[in-house]
Amino acid sequence: MEGYNCNCKIGKGKFCDGIGTPPSYFQEKDELWRFGWRVVVLGYGCGVVFGLLMGYLVFRTGKPKCDFVELDMFLALQNLETIILSSNNLSLRMNVDANFTLPKLTDVFLSSCNLSEFPNFLRHSNGLQSLVLSKNSIHGNIPEWICEKDDLKILDLSHNNLIGKIPNRLPKFLSVLNLQANYFDGNIPFGFPEGCGLQNLNLHGNQMEGLLPRSLVNCSMLEVLDVGNNNISDTFPHWLESLPDLQVLVLRSNKFHGFVQSTKESPSFPKLRVLDLSSNDFRGPLPVRYIENFKAMMDIYRDEGSPEYMNIGSYQYSLVVTLKGFDYELQRILTIFSSIHLSNNMFEGEIPDAIGKLSSLKGLNLSHNNLTRHIPPSLGTLTDLEWLDLSSNELVGKIPDELGNQFNTFGNGSYEGNNGLCGIPLSKSCDGIGTPPSFFQEKDEFWRFGWRVVVLGYGCGVFVGLEMGYHVFRAGKPKWFVSLFDGRPSQSGRKMRKARRLVQRRSGF
């Protein structure tokens, strides 16, 4: 093939201007041929860019890998509407004239393209609707020209090195604003107007402070609000409880304080499925009235077809969750995923029976609080539960026989730090004589190490921690865990240290 080199650069878009004939590679591809032949091929060994009549450009890398793509190769694509170059481990070189523009661009996806600055060639693309620049090394402030793109609906600048204040003026019709894992500071802008169309606001892992803006209540379409891992000091935002579509509320690792309670009689948070208030200074009883009204966590409808995820068009929502002290980023959020995470606060009193009504819960973490009295037998109805942590409280009595089944696999680690608890699956029997769990009595290879064993269950799988170290049984992980987690702790570890420090402080380590 002529016109290609190892750096994936062509000078004049030879096959884009309607001159000549399409390369033989595409003549053989009926599914591409039917769109017409305006196709750009950038090196058979480097990858392929499809620039079709429909104005759609996708880059797919081949082998050997491409080092970089020159922006000037797009000069001839003046009708281009969509660019998708994300996650190809390549660099986009933007050595073009300051006045260069692609006037018809509407959607640009440049995640993981090794960018260190904003692509200024987009400043004159006035019809831009989606701009995704996540997981690059872009530094500095958000430029003013982005804030002036009033047609912009999706703006994802997450996982970069951006600093400064979040601009007060944002595009009018934003549906998604994702600024997760940067270094923004100061207050969250207070001017969310009447009729605000935000559906996803993610500021997780920055240095935001002050109060949550009350004007967020104007965003009646809000589905996800994640301000975790910041320095926000406020009381619980009960004024959000009337938002009809709010499904995910994450306030973890901030300085929220006071009681968590509803201020009205009518149902609150009608669609909430994920609630994370961990590592704050909340106190008082667990929010029974809210729990009783979490309808979306009760008997979620399960379609037997393909799994469904939270998204806007092709843009998938993401979420950071904590499992056994490690932060993981869900790259996609299943519409049936539900969890409650209230650990590392100062909640007190008993665990309410009402939690047993949340039959669709996948995860429940109430650890490191001051909860007292017995574990309610009603928890035994949570048959979908994949992880449980009630550790480091002041619970007493026998673990109810009604729990049984998958609760037996949660083991000591889910209950430790409650000196008054006894019974299966704990190694402490209720007659005061400690005996190893029956599972290990039958396993000679474990018995020879002694029976001081910690079992941290996942419902189907088991974490086993011995005196000599620990082993992780991976084969039994739930399917949703395998399909959604990348198997590694979240890469934005610099954002998560505060939560771990809070855990250590409150654990006395």
TrEMBL record:
Keywords assigned by UniProt, alphabetized: Cell membrane, Glycoprotein, Leucine-rich repeat, Membrane, Receptor, Repeat, Transmembrane, Transmembrane helix
Name under which the protein is recorded: Uncharacterized protein
Main location: membrane
GO annotations of cellular component type: plasma membrane
Xref: Gene3D superfamilies: Ribonuclease Inhibitor (3.80.10.10)
Biological source species: Rubroshorea leprosula
Annotated InterPro entries: Leu-rich_rpt, Leu-rich_rpt_typical-subtyp, LRR_dom_sf
Places the protein is found: Cell membrane
Membrane association type: Single-pass type I membrane protein
Transmembrane intervals: 35-59
Family: Belongs to the RLP family.
